[in-house]
Design goal:
Elements (H helix, E strand, L loop, with lengths): L2 E5 L2 E4 L4 E8 L2 E12 L6 E6 L5 E3 L7 E6 L4 E6 L8 E11 L6 E4 L3 E6 L1
Parallel strand pairs: 2-11
Antiparallel strand pairs: 1-3, 3-8, 4-5, 4-9, 5-6, 7-8, 9-10, 9-11
């Protein structure tokens, strides 16, 4: 079984910070890109940030300058440091990883269960 387990969500006031973590575990052979997506009520899931195995990040415009994505390949873990949070950042945040596992003979996207981030004004 392959799992992505997120942690670090919660309730924070506008201007505050949160750090999300996501650890991949199970029958993993390789992990390529990892990333964070979010989905607000009534909206489609959208990219927040992604990072390559080598550590090159990509950010949505809404995240640039406020969020920082990083990863620890020795721990199969990706992080999202979120600063200067705004009420519009309120959403369920999902971890994503492109992985080759023993369950499928090809790389595929795996998703975490999501963690709620709520920013109060």
């Amino acid at each position: 079984q392959v799992q992505l387990v997120e942690s670090g969500g919660g309730l924070v006031q506008a201007g505050g910070s949160l750090r999300l973590s996501c650890a991949a575990s199970g029958s993993i052979l390789t992990i390529n890109d990892m990333g964070w997506y979010r989905q607000a009520p009534g909206k489609q899931r959208e990219l927040v940030a992604r990072i390559t195995f080598g550590g090159r990040p990509t950010y949505a415009d809404s995240a640039k300058g406020r969020f920082t994505i990083s990863r620890d390949n020795t721990k199969n873990t990706v992080y999202l440091q979120m600063n200067s949070l705004k009420p519009e950042d309120t959403a369920v945040y999902y971890c994503n990883a492109l992985m080759l596992t023993t369950h499928r003979p090809y790389e595929d996207d795996y998703w975490g269960q999501g963690t709620q981030v709520t920013v109060s004004s």
